[in-house]
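Form 7-S
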Amino acid sequence: MPGENLSRDEARERAALLSVDGYEVSLDVRSAVGAEHREGPRTFRSVTTIRFRCAEPGASTFADLIAPSVTAVSLNGRDLDPGEVFDGSRIVLEDLAADNELIVDARCAYSRTGEGLHRFVDPEDGEVYLYTQYEPADARRVFATFEQPDLKAPFRFEVRAPEQWTVWSNGAGERADGVWRFAETKPISTYITCVVAGPYHYVTDTYTRTLGDGTTLEIPLGAMCRRGLAPHFDADDVFLVTKQGLDFFHDHFDYPYPFGKYDQAFVPEYNLGAMENPGLVTFREEFIFRGKVTRASYESRANVILHEMAHMWFGDLVTMRWWDDLWLKESFADFMGSFSLVGATRFTDGWITFANRRKAWAYRADQLPSTHPVTADIRDLQDAKLNFDGITYAKGASVLKQLVAYVGQDAFLEGARRYFKRHAYGNTRLADLLSVLEETSERDMSAWARSWLQTAGVNSLTPQVLLSADGRIDELAVVQEAAQSHPELRPHRVAVGLYRRGESGALERYARAETDVDGARTVVAELAGADAPELVLVNDDDLTYCKIRFDETSLAALRAGLGDMTDPLARALCWSALWNMTRDALLPAREFVDLVLRFAGRESDIGVLQMLHAWAQSALAHYAAPAWRETGGRLLARGALRELRDAEPGGEHQLAWARFYARAAFEEADLRLLRDLLEGTERIDGLEVDQELRWAFLEPLAAHGAADEAVLAAELARDDTASGKRHQVRCLAARPSAAVKAQAWAQVVESDALSNALVEATIAGFARPSQRELLAPYAPKYFAAIERVWTERSIQIGMDVVRGLFPAFQDSRATLDATDAWLAAHTGAAPALRRLVLEARDDLARALRGQECDAAAG
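Output:
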């Protein structure tokens, strides 16, 4: 990996030197089919022509290419010796002219890691499927490039593919004389070009809209997946959300969709949720549901569809100059995903999901030692890869939600409209956006940007209530605190809600005030004289980005009646706050588990319920005192089974509790019930045990030694698909055997034979919180291996291994000391690798503090 890096300074120098007029890329992927190669990577031919200008004739620069071999290089008609100018990742270009033409003929390698041109063989029918994934800098694995976002250019692609295949790219294409040729794109960055090829199942539709000038905009729509998934593909719902999103963005952006057609490809073994390639968005195929799922899964898919669509404007039409300003696309797309979800689709409770799920991701990331401002310091491509994180996405989106409250929705959207028109097909930095927002809001944005975009860390807001003799509020203040490491106290626009029980017994809001919190203590004058509350909820309605804290009276009210809160958003905010308190060792893990067991069964929002299930398991695995884990696990399993039996038959809450019960099961009676449900000798009214649920039941059986290799092989025969194979691999690695763990470790760490998806599945099966003793020998092996893995493997696999195999379940001071020893001995290791280890160390230290808190409560 190190030789493939590109620094910000190098990119700036090259951008100052070059202007790119266009690319012509010819790929021959007919080699994708046929017998598997026994030696060396399987390759395809890639011929690239780049026409570009140089501001300083006679200067030197380089083009980017990662390929096993280069056949020929020609610069301005001069043939260059590939052996002299190509080092495996760069092509040296010397004595440039004012106008230049570079032609590179290379043999590029198909990928098995989801980076570059990924090749997948479907085990169900043997068909081969290809797709590309480039962000932040993997287009150079497919064709020669100037691989940085600010060297935009139009692209023309042509692809030779097997006769029976269809090929798609960013522009509209057609096949003639055995070659697929695609219309030239608008000027776009290299990382959002795309090719998808294979015998995909393809469905079409059309979006039509009359624009303000009376003209008609017609956008061809397409959606595709592997043939094996076609029976499960609900393309009608995908198109419904797509059309709703296009309507919404046309209504609000006043800039017609600029990239012609709109295809959406659901592809196998995808590393990301999705990618915003203009005209050809790619998604992970898990968004096609093979079994029954809850409404939350459909909401999540709709949100991702809309997130990627927002990128057509924020990111594709207008692109950040360098990855420092990654937030200019990701934060906006994350915000716009929820904004349009609520405003245009059936998922009108999308802000609840945002408050409960997306912000939880941001709060965790913002308390890690690697936290960074929303506008980050990105030194190189490895930094960029790791900064697709909770800060860039969810905190940035939260900050934008706060900005809308600060400047007003109309001013915010008018700023976006001017931003698109002023910078279309160009590249921008923070100042470019702030300038249009200052115009439309007539506010000075510099102070806001300094506080919210250029400093790191999350503030906590706590209410202070002083009561008068007659039981009314004499004074209510909001106290703001910050971590010592990031002491910035920010301005917050917040709503403060007062809650008490009404005649029905429900905990309801009876007073609310919006105010600007600034500094360490802010008095909310509007609430003086109000009746004494049982609960004060700071940041009611979730207007700002902060950790909510409670005074003792409010905490007591939640302990007694959290399930009695009638407002689902307020309830979700309280759950999120309680979880943050658990992670911060302010609330014992066993108390959080108890709250889930007492009140989660009354949670109406299915997404919140599923989040509570995940948090409860995390509380038990990481923050509970070791001596209480078995008791806590038994309580969770018993509670999950009770709720499963009490849930509405056939409903989504029943399905959620069934999955949670399977994850909580570990005693013989629970494992026997799972086995009986699988075999059909036991039934729970309304619960359909479809294929996906069968695997969910088999995983704990395998992890606790109640399903052996033969049972898992039989299940794979029943579900001999790509999805089935991933499930089987995870279950195989989960078995409680030293030999199994040794084999799984070797497959991931010592070999590169597994694809990215099977690496992920193997790691998920290997690392089980119930198998701490079995995993203990791998802690020293981890620290001995990670630097080699980081050097030898792709960055995606390196990230998977370093994150996934960290000995988090060896939660002791000894593991913390071993982590510190590795960090002290490897000060020269790649900064991105050190960041991952530092993050894992912080999670472990936080877990140990939580365990101390929980033990003290016992």
